[in-house]
Predict the structure.
Amino acid sequence: MPAELIDGRAIAKKIRADVAERVKKLAESGVKPGLAVILVGDDPASAVYVAAKGRATEEAGMYSLTMRLEADTSQSELLAHVDALNDDPRIHGILVQMPLPKQIDPDFVIRSVDPNKDVDGFHPINVGKMLVGERDGFIPCTPAGIQVLLKECGVETPGKHCVIIGRSNIVGKPMAALMMQNTTDANCTVTVCHSRTKDLREHTRSADILIVAAGRSGIVTGNMVKKGAVVIDVGTNRVKDEKSKTGTRLEGDVDFESVRKVASLISPVPGGVGPMTIAMLMANTVRAAELSLSLR
Ligand code: GUN
């Protein structure tokens, strides 16, 4: 039997409905959550993601501020904007879209965001809290969304071998940190594979849960997957497609057709992880606003 599909859109809708309820509740205390998103430059993929984040913020009933800065913006200009947002009481969450142009050091920018407004969960304070298992920080949106997908699909994780391909600070590393925690929605034995891993197939074939965030189309094929495994595809590769109206389409990192024949559960691209990333950003923003009440 081919693998069942994970409906990321439906699960994200549930999360967003919960966020909208919490936004209404905050209104009773006179608080409207606000999310500021900064885009530097004109990378087309980033522009699409940033526009989607702004729309989702408004749909949730929150205040949305999108700043689009020129590609040659200096680091000090960007930092001045972040500083102003750190002090702006209308803003509870700040996200600086990655990647940034070459003249800007992303680590410096990430450290300049107030950890209490760091809804990306990228600040070292929040990364550290996640690693030691403290739940009062912010968890990066994509790995947090994947954990929710697994939970909502009834995937039992304790004792399972979770293999992650990719070691980025946005997905691979935080995903590994989450899946190894001593919690009921994790407790996995975790292996992280990357560009220097020898014999990738040997690792992937022993995965009960395989999370692919390599940024390379087709890096995982059916013969690399154990029968019955759960496969999560984080890839968002834009490829040429003459049959599509736009001439391109979105493709994951997983060779969907061959992997679907072996896996028990698989997240499609699009419609799997992508919608969850935005839903978790909304959840982190409403949480930042709720926490701001207790900091008053
Ligand atoms: N670029 C790709 N994914 C992300 C994300 O989750 N947050 C930010 N800030 N930039 C990204």
About this structure: The domain at 141-274 is CATH 3.40.50.720 (Rossmann fold). Residues 273-295 form the longest helix (23 residues).
